[in-house]
Design brief:
Elements (H helix, E strand, L loop, with lengths): L13 H34 L4 H8 L3 H13 L3 E4 L3 E4 L1 H23 L4 H14 L2 H12 L2
Antiparallel strand pairs: 1-2
Helix pairs in contact: 1-3, 1-4, 1-5, 2-3, 4-5, 4-6
Length: about 150
């Protein structure tokens, strides 16, 4: 509804707004590691190996970009790599991948429940899974359980 006057916007308190934006920046920073860990776990589960070339192709990035991200996973203690054997997740990496996979499935299930087509739900969940809080995920779970 347009009245010709600008919409009045009420800003949250500065600390509240800073916390919200900070959460988003943190989620963006960790989303990359989460995507790589989840994909590596999937590749290991389905084919027994996760080679950097396969990772790069599946994520749609260059080989150099995949190597850089894998190096970061290794620095963070989430993965190891063996020459001619590919990439493997540490226990912490496996835990991260499992947590991300659960978040992804819950977001997809919620989107499907509200009528989003499957492919759109899968695609949208790739972004949402990294940004949604544990409190929101718990609410999604309660909603789905009560249907």
């Amino acid at each position: 509804m347009t009245t010709g006057e600008p919409e009045r916007i009420e800003l949250p308190e500065e600390p509240t707004q800073a916390r919200r934006f900070g959460k988003t920046r943190t989620a963006q920073s960790t989303a990359l590691l989460e995507d790589y860990a989840e994909l590596i776990a999937d590749l290991l589960a389905t084919g027994g190996e996760a080679r950097p070339t396969d990772i790069a192709r599946r994520l749609g990035v260059s080989h150099a970009t995949a190597i850089k991200a894998i190096s970061r996973l290794k620095r963070e203690g989430l993965a190891t790599a063996r020459p001619y054997r590919g990439v493997f997740l540490t226990e912490a990496g496996e835990h991260l991948a499992a947590r991300v996979r659960l978040r992804h499935r819950l977001v997809v299930d919620l989107l499907l429940a509200v009528g989003v087509p499957r492919e759109a739900a899968e695609q949208d969940a790739e972004g949402l899974e990294h940004h949604v809080s544990d409190a929101t995920l718990a609410a999604f779970s309660r909603f789905l359980a009560g249907r």
